[in-house]
Write a structure and sequence with these properties.
By secondary structure, this protein is an alpha/beta fold. The protein has 26 helices and 23 strands. It has 5 domains: 197 residues, P-loop containing nucleotide triphosphate hydrolases (Rossmann fold); 127 residues, Rossmann fold, CATH 3.40.50; 104 residues, Winged helix-like DNA-binding domain superfamily/Winged helix DNA-binding domain (Arc Repressor Mutant, subunit A, Orthogonal Bundle), CATH 1.10.10; 76 residues; 63 residues, Arc Repressor Mutant, subunit A (Orthogonal Bundle). Helix content is 46%, strand content 16%. Helix 14 packs across helix 16, helix 19 packs across helix 20 and helix 24 packs across helix 26. It binds adenosine-5'-diphosphate and magnesium ion (MG). Magnesium ion binds next to loops.
């Protein structure tokens, strides 16, 4: 197949004219049957690298991805383009999962998205062997690395899939965060047949990375936001701080709102939409904000608190300037942050006995007796759990992380599942039922008119929509559904919103619960090392920020010339004499009229590189400014 085919698919389904750097190389590598690791920064366009080749091939593409909300979004998007796709995750009943898999085997589905904890189940392994697979895509592949910052034990079971599928099916692993160590780990743990890494540079030439040492962060933020143009994100660590900072900004007359995972879905969606549309200028958020945001013109990302790894920082700050225009990534750092980080370290690593306490309490809370519980899925509300046992929330959360790391259980984010209905009788039998039970007739007709496909699979339904359509109360609709279900006409799964915990093992006696001390120690050391690198970044005054970040990901680069460190150096690269001469010239030009930067450089009559430095310095020090049309004027 030639490359034109892929471009045609790109245009036909997505309406894009050309591939981004590396997308084509990854596609070529995959279709030639090679296991491939693709590294691209967030927003680089990784999804297309498995979607396009899958559309060009026979069979179905299996996509493994840990975030259920994003999974659903992608499946919806594909289906809306009339590409048949389906998702399987722990929020679904065993029966639903089985039907979905059957449909994949016998239907003409192109994509099967699955969350990692499902792939180890025997049902999945049995069914996957029957699929005509074209490709296995593993998104967020860094989750496989035990020493990475986001380990998921079930990722380790992905390689086992190879025992059940044709050896010809290539694996495509994708990630945005890969230190050299993690890259090796990914290829090993996925049993790559050969070493094959394709990467784009992670360099973001249009981002100015700045670190500001400030104790009075509020004052600094307000001042900066008055000066800055366009819209952006302020990241803070806690939900409480989110709200406080947003309120402070609003009080100062800055258009701002806050966002965190504790808010109801509809409110979050509204806030995100308002920000995306530009109605809210600044969104103050925890790291919950960002997944699935797709806004190109973000001018600044400001970190009020320092993240605990460069991976996180790079990912979050990377949301600025996707449009390629100048943008700022600012980190506020104070000495008191350092002591706070040490404190959070303590909470991050609870003593092993505490972890065991949490394990026992959790099993009791979920009513799992010793020796059972394997593969069971439970709804789980952390806040309810900690309240009931009077545990401290953060320490408990981190204890659970350890239990996950050891592979005993796995947690999902909160999943919002709509109600689902599946008719389990044939059309003929349903007709007989309608004739015999007239009171249900119009309700059944309503269902059949409103939704399709209910005879072959579970279909999402909305009690609210049905209620609005008919004027019948929601409660009555619900009762109809429950009744039909008790007559074995339909299977009805009421919708709910919940996080889940999945037990990978049966409940163990406390004595038998093993938290490996070596593991514990190593995790702690790795965490410590990551944090240290982050602090080094913040404290350094003489290494280019961009060089530091890229070096962390194993990439060599030249200094960027636009971070705070480089800018300071730029000043020094000019003699005082030259600097003053150019400054006089700039002043002269700007005292008579406004001009844009390019013209100003020409008018000064000095070498461009030198004039640029002076102009940048003047901008940085508020001597000159840009107006709406990006024309420069003299400030004072
Ligand atoms: P990643 O997974 O690497 O973070 P995504 O796959 O979510 O990135 O893609 C990010 C955005 O880039 C999406 O809006 C996508 O539609 C867009 N995109 C991807 N490839 C192209 C392309 N070749 N041309 C234009 N836009 C693209
Ligand atoms: Mg992605």
């Amino acid at each position: 197949m030639n490359l034109g085919t892929y471009r045609k698919i790109l245009t036909k389904y997505w309406g894009f004219n050309s591939f981004r750097p590396l997308q084509e190389d990854i596609i070529k590598s995959v279709v030639s049957g090679k296991d491939t690791l693709g590294l691209m920064p967030t927003g680089g366009g990784k999804s297309l690298t498995f979607q396009v080749p899958a559309l060009a091939s026979e069979g179905i593409c299996l996509v493994i991805t840990p975030l259920i909300a994003l999974m659903k979004e992608q499946v919806n998007r594909l289906n809306s383009m009339e590409i048949k796709s389906i998702a399987i995750h722990s929020g679904m009943s065993a029966e639903e999962i089985e039907i979905a898999l059957e449909n994949c085997i016998y239907g003409d589905y192109k994509f099967l998205y699955v969350s990692p904890e499902r792939i180890a189940t025997s049902m999945f392994q049995y069914k996957v062997a029957k699929l005509n697979l074209s490709l296995v895509a593993i998104d967020e592949a860094h989750c496989i690395s035990q020493w990475g910052y986001d380990f998921r034990p079930s990722y380790l079971k992905i390689a086992k899939l190879r025992d059940h599928i044709s050896p010809k099916v290539p694996f495509l692993a994708l990630t945005a965060t890969a230190t050299p160590h993690v890259i090796e780990d990914i290829m090993n743990k996925l049993s790559f047949k050969e070493h094959n890494v394709l990467r784009t540079s992670f360099e973001r030439k249009n981002i100015s990375y700045l670190v500001r040492n400030v104790e009075e962060k509020g004052t600094y933020l307000v001042k900066t936001l008055f000066k800055a143009k366009g819209s952006g994100i302020v990241y803070v660590r806690s939900r409480k701080r989110c709200r406080e900072v947003a309120e402070m900004l609003v009080k100062e007359g800055i258009s701002a709102d806050y966002y965190h995972a504790g808010l109801p879905d509809d409110i979050r969606d509204k806030k995100q939409a308002a920000w995306t549309a530009g109605d809210t200028r600044v969104i103050v958020s925890t790291n919950a904000f960002g997944m699935g945001i797709d806004k190109a013109e973000v001018r600044f990302v400001i970190h009020w608190d320092i993240p605990d790894s460069i991976e996180n920082y790079f990912q979050e700050s990377g949301r600025v300037g996707r449009d390629g225009k100048p943008a700022f990534a600012v980190m506020l750092f104070s000495q008191s942050d350092k002591s706070r980080l040490t404190e959070s370290m303590r909470k991050k690593f609870p003593p092993i006995e505490k972890i065991k306490d949490v394990y026992e309490a959790l099993c009791n809370y979920l009513m799992v007796p010793e020796g059972s519980g394997k593969d069971n899925v439970f709804d789980f509300n952390l806040y309810d759990f900690v309240a009931k046992y009077r545990f401290p929330a953060i320490e408990t959360f981190n204890s659970l992380q350890f239990l996950q790391r050891e592979g005993y259980m796995e947690f999902t984010e909160e999943i919002n599942n709509p109600s689902r209905v599946h008719f389990i009788v044939s059309r003929d039998d349903l007709y007989k039922f309608q004739v015999a039970n007239e009171s249900f007739d119009s309700f059944i007709k309503l269902l059949l008119r409103s939704y399709t496909g209910m005879f072959s699979e579970f279909v999402p339904v909305s009690e609210d929509v049905l209620s609005r359509k008919t004027g019948i109360s929601r409660d009555t609709i619900y009762k109809y559904l429950v009744k039909l279900s008790s007559y074995n006409i339909i299977k009805y799964i009421p919708g709910k919103k919940s996080a889940l915990v999945i037990f990978n093992e049966e409940r163990l006696m406390r004595k038998a619960l093993f938290i490996s001390p070596e593991n514990y120690l190593e995790v702690k050391e790795k965490y410590d090392a990551r944090l240290k690198k982050m602090i080094e970044y913040a404290e350094s005054e003489n290494r280019c920020r961009s060089v530091t970040l890229l070096d962390y990901f194993g990439e060599e680069s030249d200094r960027c010339g636009i971070c705070d460190v480089c800018r300071k150096r730029n000043e020094l690269d000019l003699s005082k004499y030259e600097f003053d001469l150019i400054l006089e010239e700039v002043k002269k030009v700007l005292s008579s009229r406004k001009v844009d930067a390019e013209e100003l450089i020409k008018l000064t009559g000095y070498p461009e590189d030198k004039a640029v430095k002076v102009i940048r310095w003047l901008l940085d020090h508020d001597k000159i400014r840009n107006d709406e049309e990006m024309k420069l004027f003299w400030q004072s």
